[in-house]
């Protein structure tokens, strides 16, 4: 995209992100103390506290806040979604999958530790996430998070990770790499709605559930998150091409070089940008019916997804 929207100055988005990400960082640190058996705990902490952008937990907190909840109500869910995200990255980096030596600028988990520990650290993070989300004592006394709502939140996280979500996206992505690369936009959308959008969707929806949202609010927030999940991937693909042309000869543009199908390959750069713009507008439209004094964080998270540079 050429220019960022003029609304950017009205809300201190950077300050908001820094403050929320710092709170998430503290909660993650407290959630997984170093304990026996130490090596697997070390690996879990190594990957969890490696300094990601924390987009999913911030989406979770922002959705909770939008529907009238407080950060403390959504923090267990925010930690849980980041644990699932971290687990998916650890497993994605394994030699049997993407075989990546680096993650977030440092050795990937199986490189810093070993493969069995990386697999088990990932497994432990999934169990941990569900235990935290399902435990009523995770929620502060003033939270009106009923058992019904906890059960819905657990179901949402389970379905986003499984064969209808992340696993389906990852399998379809693996099958589509190389000569079998997806030929159609529908196939590409199938992959990204599951591999990338599903966890963003769950993050927003679970935040809304614990914040006390109505079914209608949850549905609109679900659509918002699906749009920004896809948008995230389209922008990733666009950045890959633009970075590649900027930095030809350096390491950027891995997916361009890998034979993976991307939006620019199927649509060209201009139409990919138009598609991204449409997704951005569609995501914002979903927020129209909410209290306008509370929508700034999610509106700006959508802009951030669209206009980020990395
Ligand atoms: C959850 C049960 C279960 C299985 C996971 C391995 C696997 C199955 C799925 C892989 C999913 C995957 C690696 C998706 C990529 C998603 C994505 C866009 C990652 C990058 O997200 P950022 O940019 O990363 O938010 P940071 O580092 O900022 O956190």
UniProtKB/TrEMBL annotation:
Keyword field: Isoprene biosynthesis, Magnesium, Metal-binding, Transferase
Biological source species: Musa acuminata subsp. malaccensis (Wild banana)
Cofactor(s) the protein needs: Mg(2+)
Taxonomy, superkingdom: Eukaryota
Gene Ontology CC entries for this record: cytoplasm
Record flagged with keyword Protease: no
Protein known as: (wild Malaysian banana) hypothetical protein
Biochemical pathway: Isoprenoid biosynthesis
GO biological-process terms attached to the record: isoprenoid biosynthetic process
Molecular-function GO terms, alphabetical: geranylgeranyl diphosphate synthase activity; metal ion binding
Similarity annotation: Belongs to the FPP/GGPP synthase family.
